[in-house]
Write a structure and sequence with these properties.
Rossmann fold, 13 helices, globular, alpha/beta, binds adenosine monophosphate, 12% strand, five-stranded parallel sheet, 2 domains
Length: 281
């Protein structure tokens, strides 16, 4: 399934994408996440993107398109993907169309998540991200879970919540203005291609997931997958086998470690290394 999620900042694209990742087992490709990672790692791309991001403007098309081209070429994108935050303007939409036509993998659907302006601002103010696993929470609508199974999958400790620097009031206003001016026209672009579905993205996260699954013609995506413990059965079995191999291999390694007598012998037989090796074999 190749999908674009369209919607203003705070409309829940990230949250819904993460659910689709778990349920449809296809990757989420978020240009915002890729750019934030480039900034955090201090790459040249991050350096060039930072100023526009801090101001709430769009990053240069050439930088974003280069990044997306590279990401779509990854093996995991062959079985499908969810584009979150891309395309953001008509030039990007045309470029994406050409790119996907070129590899014979056109989009299956574009879903526009509609949320009222006041609600967007409210949601953005409550948005927090785990600094370790990147999962997005909302203190108002989807707070981090508590109790068993609530730990961060990366650290096994509670999620470390941070607020994005561009989620401040002034930048949010600019991002919403940019959305109306540059991104909203994509609704007509995709409607003209018969790909557009518009859903009401207000209400609980579960309700929105149900509407999204319905729009995609895949109501099963509204259901949670089997619990993580069942899903991890095979990899865990693999880890056990690997650990067993390591346990078997260790004593063999210990045997090869030369004892004191052998070390003394090797020191005295300087330059006769091949001979010593042959002897040990
Ligand atoms: P997001 O996380 O999608 O809200 O993106 C955060 C910021 O990254 C945006 O405000 C832009 O500055 C930049 N950005 C993300 N995606 C794009 C894109 N497709 N084109 C240009 N800039 C982008």
């Amino acid at each position: 399934m190749r999908i674009v999620l369209l919607g203003a900042p705070g409309s829940g694209k990230g949250t819904q994408s993460q659910r689709l990742v778990e349920r449809a087992r296809i990757p989420q490709i978020s240009t915002g996440d890729l750019l934030r990672s480039a900034v955090a790692h201090g790459t040249e791309l991050g350096r060039q993107a930072k100023e526009a991001m801090d101001a709430g403007r769009l990053v240069d098309d050439s930088l974003v398109l280069g990044m997306i081209r590279e990401r779509l070429a990854h093996r995991d994108a062959r079985k499908g993907f969810i584009l979150d935050g891309f395309p953001r303007n008509l030039a990007q939409a045309h470029a994406l169309e050409r790119l996907l036509e070129g590899i014979g993998q056109p989009l299956d659907a574009v879903v526009q998540l509609e949320v009222d302006y006041g609600e967007l601002v409210r949601r953005i103010s409550g948005r927090r991200t785990c600094a370790d696993c990147g999962r997005v929470f909302n203190l108002l609508t989807s707070p981090p879970p508590v109790g068993e199974g609530a730990a961060c999958p990366k650290t096994a400790a509670p999620h470390r919540l941070i607020q994005r620097p561009d989620d401040n009031e002034a930048t949010v206003a600019e991002r919403l203005r940019v959305y109306d001016e540059k991104t909203r026209p994509l609704v007509d672009f995709y409607r003209a291609r018969g790909l557009l579905h518009v859903i009401n993205a207000e209400g609980s996260v579960d309700e929105v997931t149900r509407r999204l699954a319905q729009a995609l013609g895949a109501p099963a995506l509204a259901q949670r997958r089997a619990p993580a413990s069942t899903v991890r059965k095979r990899p865990r079995a693999k880890r056990i086998v690997k650990a067993a191999h390591q346990r078997v291999r260790k004593p063999a390694k210990a045997k090869r470690t030369p004892g004191k007598a052998a070390r003394t012998h090797r020191k005295s037989a300087a330059g006769s290394r091949p001979k010593a090796r042959g002897k040990r074999r």
